[in-house]
Amino acid sequence: MGEEFNPSKPIYLQLVDRISWEIIKGERKTGEKLPSVREMAIQSGVNPNTVSRTYNELERMEIVETKRGQGTFVTEQKEKLVELREQLKINHIQNFIEEMKQMGFSSEDMIEGIRTYVTNEKENQS
Amino acid sequence: MITFENVSKRYLTKHALSDVNVTIPEGKIIGLVGSNGSGKSTFMKMIAGLVGPSEGKVMIDQEPVSRRTANKVAYLSELDAYYSFFSVKETIDFFASQFQDFDVEKANDIVDFMEVDSSQKVKHLSKGNRGRLKIALTLAREVPVILMDEPLSGLDPMVRDSIVKGLLSFIDLEKQTVIITTHEVTEIEPLLETVIAIRNGKVLALEDVETIRERDRMRIVDWLKKMYQEEA
């Protein structure tokens, strides 16, 4: 059955996140056509009206464009995708910092922690 | 649009529905949820015109439910009610002869989509395939209201999955409204846009499912439990 969704967040927003993520990772390319609302509904086991709402939201964010009678496409405006990527970065950092704070770590602890982690990872690779 | 105005239904001394007032929005997939004996099936049968209210009115497009509104409603019953000696194809043809709005081509498409062999006799179908056939017969009617009473009950996950996919593939929410009762709410939760909670014959709430997620941060099942507790 479809995919798993978090019960405490609207599904249309979860689909927005998922599709944004796929675009940033390059799984959906610039200018590529997204599945039709119905196809997407069937693939993800979600109400078609929810998918429409997702597409509207992506369009509002200017990540996709709807061409009349042709469907919905990932935008060809590269700067919009750069913006999206930056936005996702900030969101991830925010979540990370929020959780670290809850565990009682200071900003210095976090920066130091990241530095050590990255250095170790580099050494392990070489 | 379907409206219940002060609708009550008594079976002898038992109240199946009491003073229900609700307007059901169009173009959505709606879940009717509640415990056993809460009145879900009576609610559905009233829309289908199979049960009349003891008091009040049930209306479809401002017209009281009657034999004339029956051509606006496709009703999938909890029970199997087909001629077991018919083949799948004969059953489809039989339905086509009974309902003017029945689209034979669509029925065949759905049966193919669900990979049911149409030359098989109904009595030789597995339980899962009988479930699939019922869905095909219901969705093949070109009607604005589709009622499904426990379409997934007793079926294995593969069959449930193909029924959900079939539903998504063949309904048209620009023209149709679907009302589903099910005990497998969590499983079809992403499918539902609106839920109606019903308890002891009373409608407790009609709510947008995305709103429940956003505001209450809950699954429908937990929301229903909360509604039941608040009412108790």
Quantity of strands of chain B, as a count: 10
| Measured distance between first and last alpha carbons of chain A | 43 Å
Beta fraction of the residues of chain A? 5-15%
Low-confidence stretches of chain B: none
Pfam family, one (chain A): GntR
Organism (chain A): Guptibacillus hwajinpoensis
Keywords (chain A): DNA-binding, Transcription, Transcription regulation
GO molecular function, one term (chain A): DNA-binding transcription factor activity
Key terms:
heterodimer, A: 126 residues, mainly alpha, Arc Repressor Mutant, subunit A, two-stranded antiparallel sheet, 5 helices, 63% helix, 6% strand, elongated, B: 232 residues, alpha/beta, Rossmann fold, 6-stranded mixed β-sheet, 4-stranded antiparallel β-sheet, 8 helices, 35% helix, globular
Describe the structure.
The complex is a heterodimer of chains A (126) and B (232). Chain A has five helices and two strands. Chain A is mainly alpha-helical. Chain A folds into two domains: 66 residues, Orthogonal Bundle (Arc Repressor Mutant, subunit A); 47 residues. In chain A, strands 1-2 form a two-stranded antiparallel ribbon. Chain B is of the alpha/beta class and 232 residues long. Chain B has a single domain, classed as P-loop containing nucleotide triphosphate hydrolases (Rossmann fold, 3-Layer(aba) Sandwich). Chain B contains eight helices and ten strands. In chain B, helix 3 packs antiparallel against helix 4 and helix 4 packs parallel to helix 5. At the A-B interface, helix 2 and helix 3 of A face helix 5 and helix 7 of B.
